[in-house]
Design brief:
Blueprint lengths: L10 H25 L4 H10 L2 H5 L4 H6 L3 H22 L5 H30 L3 H37 L2 H26 L12 H15 L5 H10 L2 H15 L11 H30 L1 H13 L3 H9 L4 H30 L4 H41 L2 H9 L10
Helix pairs in contact: 1-2, 1-6, 1-7, 1-8, 1-11, 2-16, 5-6, 5-8, 7-8, 7-12, 10-16, 10-17, 11-16, 12-13, 12-15, 13-15, 13-17, 14-15, 14-16, 15-16
Main location: membrane
Family: Belongs to the major facilitator superfamily. Folate-biopterin transporter (TC 2.A.71) family.
Pfam families: BT1
């Protein structure tokens, strides 16, 4: 008889563990490199490359099916990510820390993307009924967002306080990554003992058939109707936002003499990592409510407007350079709320595109193109900012949102899609 586990013992913690490496790789790395004196061009270019594992993760998903169980992959990737966090803490004082930490972030990015593949599949095996899966979907989202708030908010705030007390950013971030490593490795040990062992969680024995099915599934995605328009929408919907997000932290942290707002790392963790992320979550919830009420076809263009028009607050901030922290927090909350609100439409559009016989695989492909749409613009954002200055760069980022409006007019969406 297979031992049953209470889902509350593992669903929240696995969801939280999905968010931690992503936050470390895609968010904390940018703030850390800025604190350690890396130029905007370099930090934007190299950290944008870290999106690549999430771009191509659908390509190696069959490996997770072929070798070992999803339970084993989940625990193993947590061990690799925890070791990577510890290694970052140990290398920050090295003379060539930038190169070595980038290698370690790459390792964590690939392990995190693989962990996503394995753990998403494990949820469906560990919670075998649709009723259970539906009951815990909100729990998964909440604990993933909690990891974002704890990382981008709490840990950045802690790093800022340690910088104030020690005057050594490398030491401060070493402590932060050491704490993350200890906590994450503790989660890994916990999951080794508490994750259930579903009877259907086993390696795929028909390897040749699996690869043939994978190729056919992948090819069927590109045979979908209006696929060129679909891909253009996926790549261009966040063209402006991809550039703005990559430069948000450097702008907020740069001294006023360089055109930034000169926030301390602690203040950044509070206003952007905590208040901003909370506004992002609220915006996503509100966007989901709106699209379920009116349908995606009617709601898409208003949601595109609400997502992109608030980007203008960065033009205001870069022009006025206000020093009043509550005003800065309010502006960032408005922008992040709009981003979360409009992103809900984007997520539902991917659900619509993926719907069909291979919805899980096709949704993964959509998310790969979504990540590519963030990676490519993000790579050049630092170079552009250094040549344009913050004010003109943010004006350019706002202009870059125009393709999203055009593509929202071009895509075809059934009138009732998304409505309850």
């Amino acid at each position: 008889m297979v031992q049953q586990r209470n889902p509350w013992a593992w669903v929240p913690s696995v969801s939280f563990s999905q968010g931690v490496p992503y936050v470390a790789v895609m968010m904390l790395s940018t703030v850390m490199y800025k604190n350690l004196g890396i130029s905007n061009a370099d930090l934007a270019f190299y950290t944008a490359w870290l999106y690549l594992p999430w771009v191509v993760k659908p390509l190696w998903s069959p490996i997770v099916e072929l070798f070992g169980t999803k339970r084993r992959w989940t625990v193993l990737m947590q061990l690799v990510s925890g070791a990577g966090l510890a290694a970052v803490a140990l290398t920050l004082h090295a003379p060539d820390f930038f190169r070595w930490t980038l290698v370690l972030f790459w390792l964590m990015a690939f392990s995190s993307a693989t962990h996503d593949i394995a753990s998403d599949g494990f949820y469906m095996l560990g919670l075998p009924t649709q009723r259970q899966q539906a009951a815990f979907v909100g729990v998964r989202s909440a604990f993933y967002k909690l990891a974002m708030i704890g990382g981008q908010g709490g840990l950045v705030y802690l790093a800022g306080e340690l910088i104030k007390s020690s005057g050594d950013p490398a030491h401060a971030w070493s402590v932060v990554f050491a704490l993350m490593a200890a906590g994450f490795l503790a989660l890994c040990v916990w999951h080794q003992f508490v994750l259930p062992r579903p009877p259907d969680d086993h390696a795929h024995t028909a390897g040749g058939a699996l690869w043939r099915d994978f190729v056919q599934t992948f090819a069927s995605f590109f045979r979908k109707k209006d696929i060129v328009t679909t891909l253009a929408f996926l790549l261009l919907y966040r063209l402006g936002e991809a550039q703005l997000l990559k430069m948000a932290a450097p702008f907020l942290l740069d001294p006023r003499a360089n055109g930034g707002l000169g926030l301390s790392t602690s203040d950044f963790g509070l206003v952007y990592g905590t208040i901003g992320v909370c506004a992002l979550v609220i915006g996503g919830i509100a966007g989901g409510v709106v699209v379920s009420r009116f349908g995606l076809k009617r709601a898409l263009m208003p949601m595109v407007v609400i997502m992109h028009v608030p980007d203008l607050v960065f033009v205001y901030l870069a022009t006025a350079l206000p020093a009043h922290l509550p005003l800065i927090a309010f502006c960032l909350a408005v922008e992040q709320f709009g981003y979360g609100f409009g992103f809900a439409a984007f997520m539902l559009y991917m659900v619509m595109v993926a719907d069909g016989a291979h919805k899980t695989a096709h949704y993964a492909i959509c998310t790969g193109f979504m990540a590519l749409g963030m990676m490519l613009p993000g790579m050049i954002s630092g170079w552009l900012q250094q040549r344009l200055g913050y004010q003109h760069f943010f004006i350019w980022a706002c202009i870059s949102t125009l393709p999203a409006f055009y593509m929202a007019l071009k895509v075809r969406i059934p009138a009732e899609f998304g409505r309850k």
